[in-house]
């Protein structure tokens, strides 16, 4: 699945958008190699270029990164009700995963957004 299709799919369910809102200049790069939880009130990662390698990054609440790269089997799990904005590039290696957890498991998304 290419970036445009993934972005459209995730925008459709309201959890992730690419190329939105954050300036890309002078973003700090942070590499995450151990499973990490970013809580809703933790803004220390916001605006950065994140490289997630071989671990799970769980995002609670609303956050925005300049770029996000998943490699070596990494997973980003976006909690139900959370919104993740990626201003520049979203790169998901073939063996990595983006998991969007539903806020309300009773309702479901049909063919329309």
Structure description:
The chain has 113 residues and is mainly β. The chain has one domain (3-100). It has one helix at 3-12; strands spanning 16-18, 29-32, 36-38, 49-53, 56-59, 62-65, 67-71, 75-78, 83-86, 90-92, 97-100. The strands form three sheets. The protein has a four-stranded parallel β-sheet with strand order 2-4-7-10, with no helix packed on it. Mean pLDDT is 78; it is low at 7-15, 20-24 and 107-113.
Mean pLDDT: 78
Summarize the main sheet.
Answer: 4 strands, parallel
- The portion of residues forming beta strands comes to 35-45%
Approximate helicity band:
under 10%
Radius of gyration: 13 Å
Topology order in helix (H) and strand (E) letters: HEEEEEEEEEEE
| Form type | globular
Helix tally equals 1
Q: Can you tell me the residue ranges where pLDDT is under 50 for at least 5 consecutive residues? A: 7-15, 20-24, 107-113
What structural class do you assign from the helix and strand content? mainly beta
Strand segment tally: 11
Cα distance, first to last residue?
A: 19 Å
Helix/strand layout:
Elements: H1 3-12, E1 16-18, E2 29-32, E3 36-38, E4 49-53, E5 56-59, E6 62-65, E7 67-71, E8 75-78, E9 83-86, E10 90-92, E11 97-100
Parallel strand pairs: 1-9, 2-4, 3-5, 4-7, 5-8, 6-9, 7-10, 8-11
């Amino acid at each position: 699945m290419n970036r445009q299709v993934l972005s459209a799919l995730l925008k459709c369910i309201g959890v992730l958008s690419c190329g939105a809102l954050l300036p890309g200049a002078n973003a700090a790069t942070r590499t995450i190699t151990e499973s990490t939880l970013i809580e809703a009130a933790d803004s220390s990662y916001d605006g950065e270029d994140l490289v997630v390698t071989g671990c799970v990054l769980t995002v609670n609440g609303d956050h925005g990164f300049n770029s996000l790269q998943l490699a070596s089997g990494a997973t980003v799990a976006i909690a139900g009700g959370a919104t993740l904005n990626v201003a520049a590039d979203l790169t998901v290696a073939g063996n990595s995963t983006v998991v969007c957890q539903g806020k309300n498991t009773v309702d479901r998304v049909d063919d329309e957004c």
